Amino acid sequence: MTDTDITEIAKRRRAILSELSEISETPPVLVAVTKTQPDEALEAILADGQRVFGENRVQEAYEHWEARRETIPDLELRLIGPLQSNKSEDAVRLFDVIETIDRPKLCRELAKAEEKTGLERTYLIQVNTGEEPQKAGVSPDGVQDLLATAREHGLNVVGLMCIPPVEEPAGPHFALLAKLARKLGLSQLSMGMSADYDLGARFGATHVRVGSALFGARDYSA
Ligand SMILES: *Cc1c(COP(=O)(O)O)cnc(C)c1O
């Protein structure tokens, strides 16, 4: 990573923040998605003041954040990728917010992890708004029951997240997620990524998850 890359990251961050604040009087929180990013990219965006981060794998999140967490007390770490039940305890230890509750078994394991660690975290339910068979998330019809299950287990669920199908316009999916959240009295809405964070903001997102628009294209060979 060159000095120019590092300057670019801060510039892109400021441009996105200003775009979001033009769209909405209460703009969504920018969640910087740091999966696959090198240390220099993390340091660059931290130096620019970014404090809220999304990761989609527990192991990589530890590599990125376990040590930094000790020196940066105001970090907020959000798990945005699918969670295997057997990683629940590791996830609860590191993440402030887990956005990807999608099944009853995970509720049980997260509740056990909270009890064991003495930590209380914040949760979102991932909704498969496109009902895609290969995609994680509960179907829109199942959200209410899963919310009830999560609450029976004592989990503090505050919102919903979705990843619309890539080949469809995202607007109707964001609208559906917002409607479900309203109906269920949930306040957080995590929707919108690099290609459509502006649209997410227009549909009332409280959090947009942005990776490549901040850091440049990800290098999957790494
Ligand atoms: C990678 C990822 C993002 C960020 O994707 P970009 O298109 O790079 O902004 C957002 N949400 C989830 C769940 C992701 O896995």
From TrEMBL:
- Keyword Chloroplast in the entry? The reply is no
Cofactor names from the entry are: pyridoxal 5'-phosphate
**In this record, what's one Pfam family?**
Ala_racemase_N
**The keyword Transmembrane appears for this protein:** no
Q: Which residues form the Alanine racemase N-terminal domain?
A: 21-218
Question: HAMAP family recorded for this chain?
Answer: PLP_homeostasis
Name the family the entry cites.
Belongs to the pyridoxal phosphate-binding protein YggS/PROSC family.
> What name has this protein been given in UniProt?
Pyridoxal phosphate homeostasis protein
The record lists the organism as Hyphomonas beringensis
